[in-house]
Design brief:
Number of helices: 20
CATH superfamily of the largest domain: ABC transporter type 1, transmembrane domain
Helix content: 55-70%
CATH topology of the largest domain: ABC transporter transmembrane region fold
Radius of gyration: 35 Å
Strand content: 5-15%
Low-confidence stretches: 1-30
Order of helices and strands: HHHHHHHHHHEEEHEEHEHHHHEHEHEEHH
Distance between the termini: 37 Å
Bound molecules: adenosine-5'-diphosphate, magnesium ion
CATH class of the largest domain: Mainly Alpha
Mean pLDDT: 85
CATH architecture of the largest domain: Up-down Bundle
Length: about 625
C-alpha cells in the first residue's frame, strides 16, 4: 500500500486555503487601528509633505491659489459688514424711497465687493485646477523612478506588492486632492475667522454658539472618513487578489489554458467570493457611515435651533438692535457655511492624507530598498568574477535558495551550471549578474565587492534571463533595448540567435510592434520570443554573458545553432560565458562545470574529470546520452 501523503491535497477551489493563510487575510483590525492612530498624528507632517509636492510642481500656481482663495474669503466678510450699513439705512424711520436712496451707496459697496470676490475666486480656482495635473505628473514620475531603481529582491517581499498597489491604486492621485483641500481649508479658516470677528463685534455670545452648532457634523464627518479608510485598507489585499484573478480571466495569455482546463467556473466562483466579501464590507460601511452622519445631523440641528433661539432672546431683551440681529443671522449662516467648508476640507485632508500616507509609506519602503551609492571606482574589464561562500534566502523563502556556494569565472571562460529544477541555478545567475546580493558571503568583480561597485557593474554583464520579458515594443527595441541601434551588431546578434528568421517573417521587419493589443501589433510564438531574448543578450557589448536556459523553447535546429554560435560569439568578443542548460551535450564544451543540488555546489570540474568520478554529473550525462543512442547499437 502506498504511504499516505504528508500533507493532504488541497480540496475545493484552492481559494479557501489562500484566504485562510495569513497572506490573504482580510482583517487585521489591531494593525489597522494602530496605523490609523499613527496616521492621525502624522497629519501635520503629511500636509507639509503634500504642500511640498505642490511647491515643487509649480510654486507660482500654488502661491496664486493660496493668496487668491484667502483674499476671496476675506472679501466675503467685508461685504457682510456693508450689509449692516444697508440694513441700518433701511430700518430707520422715514419714507421708504428716502431709506432706499440712503442705502444705495452701501448696496453698491456690497455688489462691488461681491463681484471682486467672485473674480478673485475664479483666479484661485484656475490656479488650483492647473495644479492637479502638474502634481500628478511629478508624483507619478517619482513612483516609477523608485520602482525601477529599487533592489530586485524587494519585489519578492510580500509587503512590497501590497504597498505598491495601495500607492499606485489611489495614494498617487490623492496628493492634488489633498493640496486642494488644504487650500480650501485655509480659505475656510480665513473666512470663518473674519466672520467670527464680525459676530464678536455684534455680540460675544454668538461665538461659542457658532462653534457648538457645527461641531457635531464635523465630528460625524471625521468618523465616517475613518470608517471608509479602515475598510479600504482591510480590503486592499483581497482586492489585489481579485484584480489578479480578473486579469487571468480577461487576458489573452491565460485565455487558452482557461478553456482547456475548464477553469471558468472555478475562477468565477473564486472571484465572486472575493467580490461578495468586498461588497458586504462596502455596504456595511455605507450603513454605519449614514448612521453616524444622521446622528451628527440631528445634533447639529438641535445646536442650530439653540443658536437662533438665543438670537431671538437677545432681540427681545433689547440687547441687540434689529439691524444687528439681521446681520447676525446672515453672518451666522455664512459662518456656518464657512465652518462646514473648513471641516469638510479638514475631513478631506484627513481622508486624502490617509491615502497619501500610503504613497509616502511606499516611498519610504522603496527608498530603504535603493542600492547604496558605489564606494569602489567603476568596474574595469573582467579578470575574475568570484562567488565566495554565498548564502541567499528569498524574503518569502524559509530555506536558503543558495547555501555557501563558491564558484569563479575567469575572463574568456565558458562555465556551465547544471542541476535539477529548483536547485538554485537561476538564483546563482542573478547573483552573478549583480541583481541579488547574498546575505552571507560575497560576489566580487576583480576583487571588488558587487555591493561596493553598485549598479555600474551591470553595464559589463549581459543576461539572457530565463523568464525573459516580452516587451510591448518594436522587434528592434526588443533587441537593442535602451542602447542605440548599431546595424552591424544588430544583424550579428540576429544571426547568432536565429532572430533573423523571425524578423524576415514580420510584416514590417524590425519595425514591427510586438504587442497584439494594438492594431498593427504582431504575436510571436514562445520559441520566437526566446530567439529575440537571445539576440538581446548577444547585442549588448559585455565582458560576461549569462544565459539561463536560453534554448528551453527553441526547436532542435535552433537549439543546436544557438550553442554553436554562443561559442563563436564568446571567442570573437572575448566575453566569458555562464551557461545554464539541461542539454548535457552543450555542457561538454564548458571549461568548468558546477553541479548544483538543493542550493549547494556538489560537484565541480571539467567534463572529463566529472565523468571520471562516478557522481551526479556522470549520471545526468549518461542518462541523456543513452536516450539519444539507438538501443540496438548499444552492446
Ligand atoms: N522569487 C522567489 N521567491 C521565493 N523563492 C524563490 C523565488 N525564486 C525561486 N525561489 C526558490 O528558490 C529555489 C531555487 O530556485 P531557482 O534558482 O529558480 O532554481 P533553478 O533555476 O535551478 O530551477 C527554489 O526552491 C525556488 O522555489
Ligand atoms: Mg532556473
Amino acid at each position: 500500500m502506498p504511504e499516505p501523503p504528508e500533507t493532504a491535497p488541497p480540496s475545493g477551489t484552492g481559494l479557501d486555503e489562500d484566504l485562510a493563510a495569513p497572506k490573504w487575510r482580510f482583517f487585521d483590525e489591531e494593525l489597522v487601528r494602530t496605523s490609523l492612530w499613527a496616521k492621525l498624528t502624522h497629519m501635520p507632517a503629511l500636509t507639509t509633505a503634500a504642500m511640498g509636492w505642490a511647491w515643487r510642481a509649480n510654486r507660482s500656481d500654488l502661491l496664486t491659489a493660496l493668496v487668491a482663495s484667502s483674499v476671496a474669503a476675506l472679501l466675503a466678510a467685508v461685504s457682510l459688514s456693508s450689509v449692516t450699513l444697508v440694513l441700518d439705512a433701511l430700518l430707520t424711520e422715514g419714507p421708504i424711497t428716502d431709506r432706499v436712496r440712503a442705502a444705495l451707496p452701501a448696496v453698491a459697496v456690497v455688489a462691488g465687493v461681491a463681484a471682486l470676490s467672485g473674480t478673485v475666486r475664479m483666479v484661485s480656482d484656475l490656479a488650483l485646477a492647473r495644479m492637479g495635473p502638474q502634481i500628478e505628473r511629478l508624483i507619478e514620475m517619482e513612483l516609477f523612478s523608485l520602482t525601477t531603481r529599487a533592489n530586485l529582491v524587494a519585489f519578492d517581499a510580500e509587503a512590497w506588492a501590497d504597498a505598491m498597489y495601495r500607492a499606485r491604486d489611489r495614494g498617487l492621485y490623492e496628493v492634488p486632492r489633498m493640496v486642494t483641500a488644504c487650500l480650501e481649508g485655509l480659505a475656510g479658516l480665513v473666512g470663518m475667522l473674519s466672520l467670527a470677528g464680525v459676530l464678536a463685534v455684534l455680540h460675544p455670545i454668538l461665538l461659542p454658539l457658532l462653534v457648538v452648532s457645527v461641531v457635531p457634523t464635523g465630528w460625524a464627518a471625521m468618523r465616517a472618513a475613518r470608517m471608509e479608510y479602515q475598510t479600504q485598507r482591510e480590503l486592499s489585499t483581497g482586492r489585489r487578489r481579485r484584480w489578479i484573478l480578473g486579469d487571468r480571466m480577461a487576458s489573452r495569455d491565460s485565455a487558452a489554458e482557461l478553456r482547456s482546463y475548464t477553469m471558468r467556473e472555478s475562477l468565477l466562483a473564486d472571484y465572486g467570493e472575493l467580490a461578495d466579501k468586498e461588497r458586504d464590507s462596502m455596504l456595511s460601511v455605507a450603513w454605519r457611515q449614514t448612521r453616524i452622519r444622521a446622528l451628527g445631523g440631528v445634533a447639529g440641528g438641535v445646536a442650530s435651533a439653540l443658536t437662533y433661539s438665543t438670537l431671538g432672546l437677545l432681540l427681545v431683551a433689547g440687547l441687540m438692535p434689529l439691524s444687528a440681529v439681521g446681520t447676525a443671522v446672515l453672518a451666522l449662516q455664512r459662518a456656518q457655511g464657512q465652518m462646514q467648508r473648513l471641516l469638510h476640507s479638514l475631513n478631506q485632508v484627513y481622508e486624502s492624507g490617509l491615502y497619501f500616507s500610503d504613497f509616502e509609506e511606499y516611498r519610504a519602503l522603496a527608498r530603504a530598498e535603493l542600492p547604496p551609492a558605489p564606494t569602489a571606482p567603476a568596474p574595469q574589464e573582467l579578470e575574475r568574477l568570484e562567488v565566495r561562500k554565498a548564502t541567499f534566502t528569498y524574503p518569502t523563502g524559509e530555506e536558503p535558495a543558495l547555501k555557501g556556494v563558491s564558484m569563479r569565472v575567469e575572463a574568456g571562460e565558458t562555465i556551465a551550471l547544471v542541476g535539477a529544477n529548483g536547485s538554485g541555478k537561476s538564483t546563482l545567475a542573478r547573483l552573478l549578474a549583480g541583481l541579488y546580493t547574498p546575505q552571507e558571503g560575497s560576489v566580487t568583480w576583480n576583487g571588488d565587492d558587487f555591493a561596493a561597485l553598485g549598479p555600474a557593474v551591470r553595464d559589463r554583464i549581459s543576461v539572457i534571463i530565463q523568464d525573459h520579458t516580452r516587451w510591448p515594443m518594436t522587434a528592434r527595441r526588443n533587441v537593442t533595448m535602451a542602447q542605440d541601434c548599431d546595424v552591424t551588431r544588430l544583424g550579428e546578434a540576429a544571426r547568432l540567435s536565429g532572430t533573423d528568421e523571425v524578423v524576415a517573417g514580420l510584416p514590417r521587419g524590425w519595425d514591427t510592434l510586438l504587442d497584439t493589443t494594438f492594431a498593427s501589433g504582431v504575436n510571436l510564438s514562445g520559441g520566437q520570443w526566446q530567439r529575440l531574448a537571445g539576440a538581446r543578450g548577444f547585442y549588448r557589448v559585455a565582458d560576461l554573458l549569462i544565459a539561463d536556459e536560453p534554448t528551453a523553447a527553441l526547436d532542435a535546429r535552433a537549439e543546436a545553432r544557438f550553442f554553436e554560435t554562443i561559442r563563436t560569439h564568446a571567442e570573437r568578443t572575448g566575453a566569458a560565458v555562464v551557461l545554464i542548460t539541461h542539454r548535457m551535450a552543450s555542457v561538454r564544451m564548458a571549461d568548468r562545470v558546477y553541479v548544483l543540488e538543493h542550493g549547494e555546489v556538489i560537484e565541480e570540474g571539467t567534463h572529463e574529470t566529472l565523468m571520471s568520478t562516478h557522481g551526479r554529473y556522470r549520471e545526468l550525462y549518461t542518462l541523456q546520452a543513452d536516450a539519444y543512442t539507438d538501443p540496438a547499437s548499444r552492446s
